[in-house]
């Protein structure tokens, strides 16, 4: 028993160390829009649905903060209709604040928003291990929580787009195209995650390791939030 505990502690240290290295080496921005992507966004003058579809899909597939949150959301969802419901709530929130944030020029600090996004990952992992019931004796409304955090996720990208000079000509069509692309990327990413989870759920190790998996998810969320708060202190 002592040997197993020691092995588990060693594995946890390795996971934490690896996650820390990834966080240090990764860019502070959780919503990258740099290089050719940034140049394209700045140069567009008129509707460009195709490229914005691509950018939206790419944003979701490479957006590790979105993916970690969605992994937490669907981790214990076994019925397809539940997956569709929760992902739709997230998409609704994400799309709403992205559109309103850009069109209404809502100004918020990008580091603070991205820190909240990191904490949304922590929240979902904590909820999955019944932390709120065990520690605080409360049961949050999971649907409302997913919708609210979806609003923050969309606002995170809106703050990034606001850093560039985006033409008003065709802006609504381009943002809507971007959102459709986000949904396409989300579908592709979720299909892969569901395939992995579906296989893992057939194994006895799923339930026995679910607590540790969600604990690691929380660690990742704390790291994302911590990196953003360091950025806030140093660069804001």
Order of helices and strands: HHHHHHHHHH
**Number of helical elements:** 10
The averaged pLDDT comes out at 82
Radius of gyration: 19 Å
User: Which structural class matches the secondary elements?
Assistant: mainly alpha
Structural domains: how many: 1
**Helix percent band:** over 70%
What best-fitting shape do the alpha-carbon axes yield?
globular
Count of distinct strands: 0
Largest sheet: none
| Binned strand content | under 5%
List the uncertain runs: 13-28
N- and C-termini, Cα separation: 49 Å
Descriptive key words:
mainly alpha; 236 residues
Task: Explain what you see.
This protein is mainly α and 236 residues long. It has one domain (2-235). The chain has ten helices and no strands. The protein has helices at 2-25, 35-43, 49-62, 64-74, 80-103, 110-128, 131-136, 142-161, 171-200, 205-235. Helix 4 packs across helix 9. Residues 13-28 have low confidence and may be disordered.
What is the element layout, followed by pairings?
Elements: H1 2-25, H2 35-43, H3 49-62, H4 64-74, H5 80-103, H6 110-128, H7 131-136, H8 142-161, H9 171-200, H10 205-235
Helix pairs in contact: 1-10, 3-9, 4-6, 4-9, 5-8, 5-9, 6-8, 6-10
Summarize the structure.
This protein is mostly helical and 236 residues long. It has helices spanning 2-25, 35-43, 49-62, 64-74, 80-103, 110-128, 131-136, 142-161, 171-200, 205-235. The longest helix has 31 residues, at 205-235.
């Amino acid at each position: 028993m002592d040997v197993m505990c020691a092995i588990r502690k060693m594995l946890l240290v390795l996971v934490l160390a690896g996650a820390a290295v990834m966080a240090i080496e990764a860019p502070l921005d959780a919503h990258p829009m740099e290089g050719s992507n940034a140049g394209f966004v700045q140069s567009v003058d008129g509707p460009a649905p195709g490229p914005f579809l691509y950018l939206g899909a790419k944003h979701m597939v490479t957006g590790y903060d979105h993916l970690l949150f969605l992994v937490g959301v669907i981790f214990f969802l076994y019925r397809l209709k539940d997956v569709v419901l929760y992902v739709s709530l997230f998409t609704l929130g994400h799309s709403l604040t992205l559109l309103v944030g850009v069109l209404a020029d809502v100004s918020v600090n990008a580091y603070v928003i991205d820190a909240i996004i990191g904490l949304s990952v922590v929240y979902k992992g904590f909820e999955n291990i019944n932390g709120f019931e065990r520690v605080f004796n409360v049961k949050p409304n999971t649907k409302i929580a997913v919708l609210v955090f979806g609003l923050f996720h969309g606002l995170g990208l809106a703050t990034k787009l606001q850093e560039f000079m985006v033409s008003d000509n065709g802006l609504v069509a381009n943002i809507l195209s971007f959102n459709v692309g986000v949904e396409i990327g989300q579908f592709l990413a979720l299909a892969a995650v569901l395939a992995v989870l579906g296989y893992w759920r057939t194994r006895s190790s799923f339930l026995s390791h679910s607590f540790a998996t969600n604990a690691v998810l929380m660690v990742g969320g704390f790291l994302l939030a911590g990196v953003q708060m360091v950025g806030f202190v140093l660069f804001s």
